[in-house]
Amino acid sequence: MEKLLISFSRLTTTGLGTLGRNTLEVSKKSTNATVQEAPLYLEVVNAHTGYERSVLKNIYSGLGPEVKSQDLVRDRLDAGFHDLLTGFAAFDDEKGLAARQLLEVWDDLGAVSGLNYGDETEVLHKKIETFSSEENQALLTTVGLVPHYEALKKAQEDFDVQFLKQVDANSALRQQPSASTIRHQLEDALRDYYGMVSALRKQSGWSDLYHDLDEVLKAAKRSIHDKNDEDEKTRDKK
After folding, report:
1. What pLDDT sits at residue 226?
2. Which of 23, 51, 72, 89 is the most exposed place for a label (fewest CB within 10 A)?
3. d(CA 27, CA 200)
């Protein structure tokens, strides 16, 4: 019988995760009660948990769709508000005069179409701040667009909240150890664990676990071989 060995570097990201999971499952089924109490086994448990959480799952917050959705809301309200001002500005009455004054200020502050999140936020904050002045609020009251202004203001506030959530979540994820570091941690934990089981394979209660892990490693090696065959077939077709 030989020492339990495998070339970890030849395993894919998923392949290493599968090897870790199968190793733990086989070990949990061992009739040797001391296996799951062994420090090196617990190292595999911890390393594999971190690997599955940080490497096999996407390293991003997943809040992008919510931010995009809220961005579309503020885009529509911004465009709608401009259309309303343009419509009222066509009339030669008190509302029309107020609308033309507001429209001039609005256009001076710039359009948001085609801007990235940050630049659009800056423009909308300027618009909201400018239209919050006593003079412009009076003009909005004349035109009857105060509720529409408040709706746009709230849409921007909601976007700010959602965007900051995404920034905070992504920042927390980036502070986690790198994928390569976590991979090496799992590889080292498995290597040490296999070494321990190999060294104890002749001791009572360890032989069965040794043979079971040997089968797990053989399956992992076959997956490497099968992947190499697929790669060769792909190259031959090109």
Report:
1. 62
2. 72
3. 14
Range(s) of the domain holding residue 138: 64-174
For residue 232, what pLDDT is reported? Answer: 43
Q: Other CB atoms closer than 10 Å to residue 216's CB: what's the count?
A: 21
Nearest CA to 26 out of 232, 208, 228 is that of 208
Kindly state the tokens that stand for 30: 């061992």
Question: What's the rounded Cα separation, in Å, for the pair 94 and 139?
Answer: 10
pTM of the model as a whole: 0.51
Tokens of 58: 């996407």
* Pair (135, 81) in one structural domain: yes
- Listed in sequence order, the residues at least 6 apart from 18 whose beta carbon sits closer than 8 Å to its beta carbon are 220, 223
pLDDT of 188 over the 90 cut: yes
> Residues 24, 186: contact at Cβ < 8 Å?
no
**Phi and psi of 144, rounded to 5°?**
85, 30
Total count of residues recorded for the chain: 238
Residue with tokens 């209660």: 205
Which of 155, 167, 88, 87 minimizes the C-alpha distance to 127?
155
182 pLDDT tier (thresholds 50, 70, 90)? confident
